[in-house]
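Q: I'm a student working through a structural biology exercise. My instructor gave each of us a protein and asked us to get a predicted structure, then write a short paragraph describing it. Mine is Cell division protein FtsB. I'm not confident about reading structure output yet, so if you can add a plain explanation after the tokens, that would really help. Here is the sequence I was given:
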Amino acid sequence: MPFVLLVLGLLGGALVSLLALRTVLIEDAFAVSQLQEENRELAEREEALREDVVRMESSEAIAEEAENLGMEPGDEPLFLDVETGEISGEDGSGQGEAGPR
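A: Happy to help. First, here is the predicted structure for Cell division protein FtsB. I'll explain a few features afterward.
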């Protein structure tokens, strides 16, 4: 009789241990599922932010923002030849090469 009670006790203990282990595994699986969902949402948000950055870095967006801030396009640059003292480039009058100044 004591042997039967010992076996029943061991089986009962094993059953309780299996139930506890299964509960822990289910909790962990649920946590993993939640983390995977959160990771997917964060990846989607990252992609959307990257698209915003690409859009904001475009020359059209920069020009539009500069115009909204009151900036105006500058004149064409002039270049000074140090050796000859001549200034070349568009001088704003549309004549191309400018003479010495």
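A: Here are two points you could use in your paragraph. Strands lie at 79-80, 87-88. The radius of gyration is 38 Å. It's a good idea to check both against the output above yourself.
Q: Great, thank you!
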